[in-house]
Design goal:
The structure is a homodimer. Helices cover about 45% and strands about 15% of the residues of chain A. By secondary structure, chain A is α/β, with parallel strands linked by helices. In chain A, the strands form two sheets. Chain A has an eight-stranded parallel barrel, surrounded by seven helices. In chain A, strands 6-7 form a two-stranded antiparallel ribbon. In chain A, strand 9, helix 11 and strand 10 form a beta-alpha-beta unit. The longest helix of chain A is centred in the N-terminal third of the chain and has 17 residues. The two termini of chain A are about 20 Å apart. Chains A and B meet through helix 4, helix 5, helix 6, helix 7 and helix 8 of A and helix 4, helix 5, helix 6, helix 7 and helix 8 of B.
Chain lengths: ~270, ~270
């Protein structure tokens, strides 16, 4: 978490760029290279690094190319480590399995790929995710209220004490986060829920997907969830990486975020 | 589903072997080869294929070796397709992401790796999993009541109409399974819940992990959940693949399962 906080302060930005580098959407010039996803990511990183606190590749876009994609994700991580070691890295993998298996996922993501953080699915409970949660040097980002239109099917079921997603937020805050290494995922597409989550988890950092293509508003997200220290990592993928000038798109988004929330030092 | 049913009848077995080929547990002779996980899997498949209806590799054990592991999982799938194309294959990946991303996971698992079925996490709802559910040629196996000790943390929360996991079973049966291509995961470690799941999902097939190392009993699982056609795929991994004679272990387990349930034709 220190790495994230330092980076947020240093670059004065809450913007995270989603490296969802779907091969079919890459500009042609990259498709001709030996490592198209890696070369594309390198270009995006070179253009946008000044404006971001974090990068977040979603592994699905690499796994769909098999071992070649995974190899290029690893090359991307090595490039980041070499060139921009102070930028926070999030593996958007939404993993969640029994303990023995979670241990292997943790090794794949934290050790082999070298990420600082991972997104996790809470459905199996804290006991199953211990191999992630016990890594005090890494950050576990727990799915809570997701950004998709059908998120409410189970997340909004009412229990005796709040909805299912509120119980998850509550349990993460009160018992999972014993080492101060947890965050929550709350979609920008649901600002009311974001406000409620902030009431439950007063000082916790949230990863906020869903602005832009999915329809979430930066203004409403910042109003509902920002804290004194920032408190939100605002993710944007398609609206930055598939623009002609991704650097300009990232700068504009960073400025828009900050216009609703003058960060310390800005 | 037809492929599964045909195989169950043909080999008269409900046994699934979990190819959880954790490198640190492989016999030394395989570690010396160029493709240790592939060579090990090949040996396990050669020894056990007569006794099984399905194979289920958990991808975590391959991802922890990076692109090499993924490559060897693919080689394993190619071997199965070549040698035993009638055996049902399940990718234990527990994926669940927003629609656009699920599409990429579906391509990775169904098309690139070539699996017949995948395990999925329902927390994001049916809308997010449509790219899997819409594949009528493939089977979606939805996590419902998992086998781990801490499974109840959220799965057992009471809602106005049953527990969370019961609502998931109910929704899958009544609306997700419109093409008859869904199954549920119910752990053998919870026979009471298995019985209850059978009451909700009368004819649906369940994937049942948790016997052996995790403590679930075959007898109780069969009593609680078997149907006329079988209805259960009983998974075993460590207790077969890390035995000295995996073929004997698989045959014994198949016979034990059948002793509680004479399948048609046995």
């Amino acid at each position: 978490m220190k790495k994230l906080l330092n980076r947020v302060r240093k670059c004065n930005s809450l913007l995270c760029v989603g490296l969802d580098s779907e091969t079919s959407k890459l500009p042609k010039k990259f498709l001709k290279t030996k490592h198209p996803q890696y070369e594309f990511n390198k270009w995006i990183i070179d253009e946008t690094n000044k404006f971001v606190c974090a990068y977040k590749p979603n592994v699905a876009f690499y796994e769909s190319r098999g071992d070649r994609g995974i190899r290029e994700l690893k090359m991307t991580m090595e490039y980041l480590k070499r060139q921009h070691n102070n930028i926070f890295t999030i593996c958007d993998a939404k993993r969640g399995d029994v303990g023995n298996t979670s241990q292997n996922y943790a090794e794949a993501i934290f050790d082999w790929l070298g990420f600082d953080a991972v997104t996790l699915n809470p459905y199996l409970g804290a006991e199953a995710l211990e191999p992630f949660l016990n890594r005090k040097d890494k950050v576990s980002i727990i799915l809570c209220r997701t950004s998709n239109p059908g998120a409410g099917e189970f997340q909004d079921l009412r229990t005796s004490r709040g909805k299912v997603w509120e119980r998850i937020a509550w349990n993460v805050v009160t018992s999972w986060d014993k080492d101060g290494n947890c965050m929550l995922v709350i979609g920008a597409t649901y600002p009311k829920e974001l406000k409620r989550a902030r009431a439950i988890a007063k000082n916790m950092w949230f990863l906020v997907p869903g602005i832009g293509a999915q329809g979430g508003s930066i203004k409403e997200a910042m109003k509902a969830g920002a804290t004194k220290e920032g408190g939100l990592i605002i993710n944007s993928a398609r609206n930055i990486i598939f623009e002609k000038t991704p650097g300009d798109a990232a700068r504009r988004l960073k400025e828009e975020i900050n216009s609703f929330y003058p960060l310390p030092g800005s």
